[in-house]
Amino acid sequence: MKSGTRALGIAESYPGSARASTDDSSEHSFSTDATSTSDDSRDSAPKSILCGAVVRANGVVDGLEYGTCTVGGDDATDAIVSLYDSLGREDVRYVLVSGIAPAWFNLVDIGRLASELDRPVLSVSFEESEGLESALAEQFSGDALSRRLDIYRGAPPRRAVEVNGERLFVRAAGCDDEEATKVVRAFTPTGGRPEPLRVARMAARAARRFVGN
């Protein structure tokens, strides 16, 4: 892969408590009654800070942008689209998203994201998981549960990828598995976290600490 190829990494940070074991790289869970996602509850719910980091394949950071999505809501996909549009970077070739269920089960529709951005989208997670369906059923009901299950069941399959002696888990939309593996490896010079996601994660955390969320 050419050294100037750019990928956009999307990661988030929000104040939470004990971590849930899910198909999600977020480091926090959130304790609340999230069975309803009405407009009123969405407006009053806490926000997770999203960061988008543009990184070249040679490791050079080439841009940052911020956004927010609702903790326990269902606006993560739209928030990522908005963040991408705000960047105005047509030179971004790939989009990497940390996990599939950021901000306490605010599921990202990977397929829709790839279609709307017209770019391959890779959801990358970092832990073994038995899946999210039981966790979703414990925390949501009615339409809130149905919406999440539809997105989750429609997501591309999760596949293990070995990188620098570590195992990542990748869902890919807009490209095949072979290309997805090449992208993840090309953007992971050391360790087991692709550089666009590592930078975005650090920047999101710093932003949250700065604003005091």
UniProtKB/TrEMBL annotation:
It comes from Haloferax marinum. Coiled coil: none annotated. Pfam families: Endo_dU. Belongs to the UPF0215 family. Residues 29-38 have a biased composition (Low complexity). Residues 1-45 are annotated as: Disordered. It comes from the Archaea. This is UPF0215 protein GJR99_07235.
